[in-house]
């Protein structure tokens, strides 16, 4: 190892010489001085003395909202009161989960303080909680980040105080054993420690946080889903979500902006396991304060957000339409829920972009909030009152995000490429066959309404039994098909029977 040190030193000297050489009017002494000038000094220069004025109660906000900029020129004593609430909430349409939360939401309340502030933190664990909890704030200087001082039993409050010495965007999370389980249940959020001058002004600020979730049932399995410790240890999430719920930020809940505005996202990643490749489809981040730190990078497509990390990104909105926020580890976006949306209103800018909505391409049925029908069907099924009509409605919503890409929303298909489902001769001959086709896919030659197709339909085995039942019932009762009803049990039996609907094997 020792022999490497002179080599590195030599490289540094050479680099300095090269820099100085091409600098024109600059001289060699400039370079190190500039480097020092841009150094904020970190915690060494983060103490601006004792708090001044009356104590201030921190404004806490629920996601996707962010407290307003502080516009304060001196350090203060800031009181934060955060409640730990364990509660059942939807994690997807028709699916519930028992979340453990900071402030009743996932992610927890957003906290905003100024560098040099003295923060008096009150953590209250609600009396109806079943578990003890604590908090580790990554913006705290001191062992455990507050965890050791904040262990709080149900019905108790604990208090600790820290000085926010480093500016930046920091994750906070529960650190009670088993830590992974507390985090997986939603116990994380963000605290922004503003630099003394604040951040540059923007038109809108939003709070988005990714997390991975582990349920015993598969993705979209309806009803209440318990936490699955094995899947969590194996790092095989069932859901990867922004703001704790599939659809938390799509359809009517989409983030909003207008053209001509600059939008800032405070994005955190609670994990517990996955690293996020955060990307906004159709936008380029003008600035990214990567890792939530002091410096920004410019003109970024995708920024990496580690588990237990955060980033701040600004972008100017030029063109109206829907922008899709994803984890660009893309199966997570389209098959595990890591998809959010920002809708920008304003006049078209044809000179920048020719137009045509991105919605249908990237989101299918997720763009509109009609997935409510799916939840209604699930509720009805649970009560033993599921009607054919419920199934048709739910099936229609699911068809939009699943089958319509190929067979088209009106079931007419695309001539020579995707066969029609409307008045389908295949379904007329044997309506029950739809279950096998959806579960196992279809390949080889098939004649539909007198026209030959010889292509491949991939198995849709990401769908749950009730989803297949609802979609099948919808198709059978639409566009002049023979009608009839497919129940969940029939789908389960066909799935268990395995095999395929391959034409070649049948003929
Ligand atoms: Cu906890």
UniProtKB/TrEMBL annotation:
UniProt-listed Enzyme Commission number(s): 1.7.2.1
Span of the signal peptide: 1-28
Source species taxonomy: Bacteria, Pseudomonadati, Pseudomonadota, Gammaproteobacteria, Lysobacterales
Protein name: Copper-containing nitrite reductase
Subunit structure: Homotrimer.
Keyword Transport: no
Taxonomic source organism: Lysobacter yangpyeongensis
Cited PROSITE patterns: CYTC (PS51007), PROKAR_LIPOPROTEIN (PS51257)
Binding note for cofactor: Binds 1 Cu(+) ion.
InterPro entries: Cu-oxidase-like_N, Cupredoxin, Cyt_c-like_dom, Cyt_c-like_dom_sf, Cytochrome_c-type_DH, NO2-reductase_Cu
